[in-house]
Amino acid sequence: MDEDALAEALRRSLGELVRAVRTVDTMPPGEAAVLGFLDRDGPLTTADLARLRGVTHQSAATSVKDLSAGGLVRGERHPDDGRKLLLHLTDAGRSRLQRERALRAGALGSTIRETFTPDEQRRLGEAVDLLSRLTARLTGH
């Protein structure tokens, strides 16, 4: 298999894996994404979230509104521009995100145990290291 065919097979397989794992989610993907960005990147504006998610400002604002109403996100005036809100993950939001991540990890972990031999699990771990290097190269991190 040449590099382009490998790249396409990898892209397709990873996309299918992500979609399969998301079937256990208990919250809308957009809301989970917002919580994840706030957890990883700290306080952000709605415009920041829209850019990071690759969605419109309106779409990000809808997710933020729903998360705020649920007490998962709180806003405070931006210190550099009082017209903007800086969004923070609340303790309840962090707990909800941890539950979502645990559901995903649990579903994936049990499937890994049921599907792969110990040697295949070791090889899968090596593949994760390779994928992490690939991601770092693509993102510059």
From TrEMBL:
Superkingdom field: Bacteria
Protein name: MarR family transcriptional regulator
HTH marR-type domain sequence ranges: 3-136
SMART domains given in the database record: HTH_MARR
InterPro entries linked: HTH-type_Bedaq_tolerance, HTH_MarR-typ, WH-like_DNA-bd_sf, WH_DNA-bd_sf
Annotated signal peptide: none
